[in-house]
């Protein structure tokens, strides 16, 4: 790997293709903190972050080695997308997200591979939709889906009379978020 160009995505891929350990080492240094932050912020441990990142690097490595990698975005985006998908599947297996994987296909969690640029677009549109959603819906959904708080905790935090009322409000907030997401996504999604 050439010193001057070793930090470009193309040079990193070429380095991996030619078994240059410095390329993988650099990927770890550059992109692990981003993945670790995501996992630690979403009910994960440091060890789980290391495992997921290792799995993501392995997917990336194998696709380069067998010639099936079609990179249409930055390596950073690709690795984040792969690691995010791996982590969400692991959370689903642990039942921490209690049905999010099944009911929230609108944020790109379906089983078939999604192009990284499409995932990036969905992240962006979802962030806009969450910002438009307003309070208390935004915090309620984040508490339930991201912080994995129980309905009882949410009931107490928001002052609902019982968990059923909190669930009803969560459902209404989720429907509003879906409507905002789909309305915005239809205007920016590439035509198929």
Automatic annotation (TrEMBL):
Ranges of residues in domain RNA polymerase sigma-70 region: 27-96
SUPFAM superfamilies: Sigma2 domain of RNA polymerase sigma factors (SSF88946)
Highest taxon in the source lineage: Bacteria
InterPro entries: RNA_pol_sigma-70-like (IPR039425), RNA_pol_sigma-70_dom (IPR014284), RNA_pol_sigma70_r2 (IPR007627), RNA_pol_sigma_r2 (IPR013325)
Signal as UniProt keyword: no
Pfam families: Sigma70_r2
Keyword DNA-binding tagged: yes
Keywords noted in UniProt: DNA-binding, Sigma factor, Transcription, Transcription regulation
Name assigned to this protein: RNA polymerase sigma factor
Annotated NCBIfam families: sigma70-ECF (TIGR02937)
């Amino acid at each position: 790997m050439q010193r001057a160009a070793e930090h470009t995505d193309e040079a990193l891929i070429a380095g991996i293709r030619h078994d240059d350990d410095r390329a993988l080492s650099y990927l770890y240094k550059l992109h692990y903190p981003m993945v670790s932050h995501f996992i630690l912020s979403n009910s994960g441990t440091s060890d789980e972050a290391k495992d997921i990142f290792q799995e993501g690097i392995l997917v990336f490595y194998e696709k380069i080695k067998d010639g099936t990698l079609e990179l249409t975005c930055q390596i950073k985006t690709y690795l984040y997308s792969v690691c995010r998908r791996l982590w969400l599947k692991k959370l689903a297996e642990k039942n921490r997200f209690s049905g999010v994987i099944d009911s929230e296909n609108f944020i790109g969690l379906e089983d078939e591979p999604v192009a990284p640029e499409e995932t990036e677009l969905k992240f962006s549109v979802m962030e806009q939709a969450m910002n438009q959603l307003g309070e208390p819906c935004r915090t309620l959904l984040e508490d339930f889906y991201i912080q994995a708080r129980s309905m009882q905790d949410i009931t107490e935090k928001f002052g609902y009379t019982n968990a059923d009322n909190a669930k009803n409000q969560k459902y209404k907030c989720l429907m509003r978020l879906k409507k905002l997401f789909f309305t915005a996504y239809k205007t920016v999604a590439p035509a198929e």
